[in-house]
Design brief:
By secondary structure, chain A is mainly alpha-helical. Chain A contains twelve helices and four strands. The longest helix of chain A has 31 residues, at 2-32. Chain B is globular. Classes of the chains: A mainly alpha, B alpha/beta, C mainly alpha.
Chain lengths: 291, 236, 367
């Protein structure tokens, strides 16, 4: 029983992490039809900078931890916004080149990170509470997963509020449905592109800092592994749907953990099977629209 | 005679590499409704979308004497061109109020005018537009274009797929709107054209093949049969 | 109308001459300083040139997928790895001799391509790309986890027991060179055949306008799947050559990273052009090798950190180069040359990235 509880909560925690990374990807694709291959790079840079900040303040202090998350969010937003302005915007309506340019950015960024911080993973540490556990129904849950779940819930709430209550949010929701019609109402969607990139980058940044704490290391390839799960989650959830991404994140992560615990470590494999099944049965994803 | 509000010269347009508008030249007078007639696939919708820059186009388009063919769509619309697209294209996930709010461009939009024309919408402000009936969605689509002080409206098959009673309501609304803003109206329903349009142009194979007064064209049985494939008499 | 006799025979003659020259290189004492580590008959240079040809072959197979059929895949390396690991495992575990092993590995590659292709093609455009990425990742994980069979992270060594002596050992690099040359010629001919065949024309038409092809009663998806499988088969063959050349293979031959590398090669060379793919494969391999050597050079090591760090990472330089090419020279080398020639003759491109943008290749197609 306690194993099941542990598995489920860890699944929820990982799902929170996947959501943080996938939410931005899904919105960016939904609005701009751009696959941001460099999303992992935003994550990785935020993690490295967040770690530097935490080290400067004191790794075991909560102040350092919280500040590193904030800085991670800002770094992610900035990196993403600059990417959109310099690389994506000039390639307006050239969708293939836009995807390729993010591939190139990812390629170059990872190489640069390796050059700056080396190829070996750097072990990190955080506030002592994170490495302890809390007993729940007989299971000892590592506390870092609570932080992940809370962070994802906060980000989800913030995103939903933004989308439902602000004009830009309304423009983005309309643009995801029908971008051409938004321009036909006299609105310059391109401004929203930068905003969506920045939001996605910011969520990825938060995810990066928390991923670093969840795995207790940071490396140039931190983003690459997560990116693949983010892609799977986005396709399963339905491209462009925030709620789809949320549901799919939990589904994928819990399934992965259950398979890892009870089916001998086959979690990664089972997730790909899930992807295949979803594609065969419902290609547009759980909450996606038929093209 | 007033200068035309819109002048289109040698418009060519293509979609994904396919030429859909070959060479279109016509004027839209500064008052009243000009109908665009033609068979399915003649290039009527593509002409409107080409004017707005929604599809790739070449040629000259002048709005009140100023070139707009080089501008991006949102800039053209900001210059005062309203668009009521074929198939309505309301945002299904947004409420009626949000659909309208999105369209508002000026400090004091014509909310009262729109509310007067479409009282049914006022009752449904918080309803998701995707759950509206076809006729109600059409009202939202037309209302969007009337909220701002536009200089020209491009209206594409507003009565398509609607029940006769709703067709009349939409036609009434358009007639009312035409009193304050000129319109370029693509329409297959010849009764509506007869009722609303002053001038008409006929498009076939991506080119303008005939222009003149709407009533003259519709009364020319042989012409309508040849160019539109229908007998205008059947609609009396 | 151009002179058809000329257009038919000239490229063929040029091709034969080129292949003949390449075949003779191991017997010559040519030096290309700065590019080759030694004269052309030395094992080091031969190994480098062989690697160039293996990647040129892989690039050709990827260009068939992206340039001809308009399918952006991030998982193409899966089939390359399937060929390499397939043969490696069969040689080691089952102790098959080389020739049956090659056929079995190719068959394995085809089966994997059919299954993954059929599932991935339930969607198209960007979702398709994401799915192929996931499959390649699954393959990579499979390889890394199953230490016993695949050698895990350390990689799989070549079991030379089943391999004829003349293909083993540094002294026989010459023979491996000729095998690589044969492989790239075979794959080139295969790709050429597909492009020129009805199948290739159908796939290209589907790339341009999927709906129009369907309306004509044709089945674009079937054609695309066949092209997908052929491209996978070619990649598997290249993988087999890779295994023999490198005397082993490692997990990086399977994952998305290698596919991205091939994508970089094809884009640099010019999407939609066969000779562009070859050029891209060769150029990338040489640049990768030479930039690594350059990075250790005195001059670079002495630069301040801000310049030294980026310049010491060849992949960073290649990535930046890739970005610049995509933004300013989307046709790649072959595309830019081709458009210069066309502009003189007066015509528009119907291949390459710019044409694919016009055709909106990545937009989801309704079923």
């Amino acid at each position: 029983m306690s194993t099941l509880v542990l598995t489920l909560v860890i699944g929820l925690g990982l799902g929170a992490l996947y959501f943080l990374v996938a939410s931005g990807l899904s919105l960016i694709y939904g609005l701009m039809h751009v696959l941001n291959f460099a999303h992992g790079a935003f994550l990785t840079l935020s993690a490295f900078v967040g770690w530097a900040v935490a080290q400067a303040i004191g790794v075991s202090s909560w102040g350092g931890f919280l500040l590193s998350i904030l800085i991670g969010a800002l770094v992610g937003a900035a990196f993403a916004a600059v990417t959109e302005l310099l690389l994506i915007r000039p390639l307006y309506e050239r969708h293939i080149e836009q995807v390729l340019v993010t591939v190139g950015l990812s390629f170059a960024a990872i190489a640069l990170f390796e050059g700056i911080w080396g190829t070996d993973p750097v072990t990190i540490a955080g506030p002592a509470w994170l490495s302890r556990t809390t007993p729940v129904l007989g299971a000892s849950i590592p506390n870092k997963y609570w932080v992940l779940i809370i962070a994802a819930a906060v980000v989800l709430a913030a995103l939903v509020l933004f989308l439902k209550r602000t004009r830009y949010g309304m423009i983005i929701r309309a643009g995801v449905e029908n971008r051409a019609m938004v321009t036909a109402l006299g609105i310059d969607v391109r401004r929203s592109f930068t905003l969506v990139f920045a939001i996605g980058g910011s969520a990825a940044g938060i995810g990066g800092v928390l991923a670093m704490h969840a795995m207790t290391y940071v490396s140039a390839h931190l983003g690459s592994t997560l990116r693949i799960f983010a892609f799977i989650v986005t396709v399963v959830g339905g491209l462009g749907s925030l709620t789809g991404a949320a549901i799919a994140s939990v589904l994928v992560a819990v399934l992965q953990q259950v398979a890892n615990t009870y089916l001998g470590g086959t979690g990664d494999f089972i997730v790909v099977i899930l992807l295949a099944v979803v594609l065969l049965v419902r290609p547009q994803g759980l909450m996606g629209r038929r093209a | 005679m007033n200068a035309p509000i819109l002048q289109v010269r040698n418009l060519r347009a293509s979609i994904a590499g396919q030429q859909v508008v070959e060479d279109v030249t016509f004027d839209v007078p500064a008052t009243g409704i000009t109908a665009v007639l033609g068979r399915n696939g003649a290039g009527k919708t593509s002409t409107l979308r080409g004017i707005l820059g929604l599809i790739s186009r070449k040629g000259e388009v002048l709005l009140d004497g100023e070139r707009i063919d080089g501008l991006r769509t949102h800039r053209i619309v900001q210059r005062g061109v309203g668009y009521v697209p074929e198939d309505r294209e309301v945002f299904a996930g947004l409420t009626v109020a949000e659909n309208l709010a999105l369209a508002e461009r000026q400090r004091e939009p014509r909310r009262d005018f729109v509310e007067q024309l479409f009282p049914a919408l006022a009752e449904r402000r918080d309803q998701r537009a995707g759950t509206l009936s076809g006729g109600q969605q059409q009202m939202v689509s037309v209302a969007r274009a009337l909220l701002n002080d536009n200089r020209l409206l491009l209206v594409d098959e507003p009565t398509k797929g609607l029940a006769p009673k709703i067709v009349t309501e939409v036609a009434d609304a358009l007639a009312e709107a035409a009193r304050i803003v000129p319109m370029l109206l693509v329409e297959q329903n010849l009764d509506v054209v007869r009722r609303l349009a002053d001038q008409a142009i006929v498009i076939a194979g991506g080119r303008v093949v005939h222009t003149g007064r709407a009533v003259d064209i519709l009364n020319d049985v042989e012409l309508t049969r040849r160019l539109l494939g229908v007998s205008a008499e059947e609609h009396v | 109308m151009r002179d058809t006799t000329r257009t038919r025979w000239v490229p063929l003659l040029v091709g034969i001459v080129v292949v003949a020259v390449l075949a003779m290189l191991p017997l010559l004492n040519l030096s290309i300083p700065g590019i080759l580590p030694g004269p052309t008959y030395t094992p080091g240079s031969l190994a480098l040139m062989s690697l160039c040809m293996v990647f040129a072959a892989l690039a050709l197979s990827y260009n068939l997928l992206l340039g001809s059929a308009g399918m952006l895949s991030f998982g193409h390396a899966l089939y390359f790895g399937a060929g390499a690991y397939g043969l490696g495992i069969l040689l080691k575990a089952v102790e098959l001799p080389l020739v049956p092993g090659v056929f079995a590995a190719l068959l394995g590659g085809v089966v994997i391509a059919v299954i993954t292709g059929a599932v991935a093609m339930r969607v198209n455009g960007i979702p398709f790309a994401m799915v192929t990425l996931a499959f390649a990742q699954a393959g990579s994980v499979l390889v890394r986890r199953n230490q016993a069979v695949t050698g895990g992270e350390e990689g799989l060594g070549l079991n030379t027991a089943g391999v004829p002596d003349w293909l083993v050992g540094v002294v026989n690099t010459r023979n491996l060179y000729w095998v690589s040359l044969a492989v790239v010629v075979i794959i080139y001919l295969a790709v050429l055949w597909v492009d020129r065949s009805r199948l290739g024309h159908l796939a290209a038409a589907a790339r341009e306008n999927d709906l129009r092809v369907r309306v004509l009663g044709l089945h674009p998806n079937r054609a695309k799947l066949i092209v997908f499988v052929i491209a996978g088969l070619c990649a598997s063959l290249a993988g087999i050559a890779y295994l023999l050349l490198q005397s082993g293979t490692q997990p990086s031959a399977v994952g998305a990273d290698l596919t991205i590398t091939v994508l970089v090669m094809v884009v640099l060379g010019g999407v939609g052009f066969r000779w562009g793919a070859i050029l891209g494969g060769v150029l990338y391999t040489i640049l990768d090798q030479r930039l690594t050597v350059l990075a250790r050079a005195e001059g670079i090591q002495q630069l301040p950190d801000v310049l030294r760090v980026p310049l010491s990472e060849p992949l960073f330089i290649l990535g930046v180069l890739f970005i610049l090419v995509v933004m300013f020279l989307p046709g790649g080398i072959a595309g830019t040359v081709d458009s210069r020639l066309r502009r003189r003759r007066g015509g528009t491109a119907d291949a390459g990235l710019e044409a694919m943008d016009e055709q909106d290749v990545l937009e989801p197609v309704s079923r």
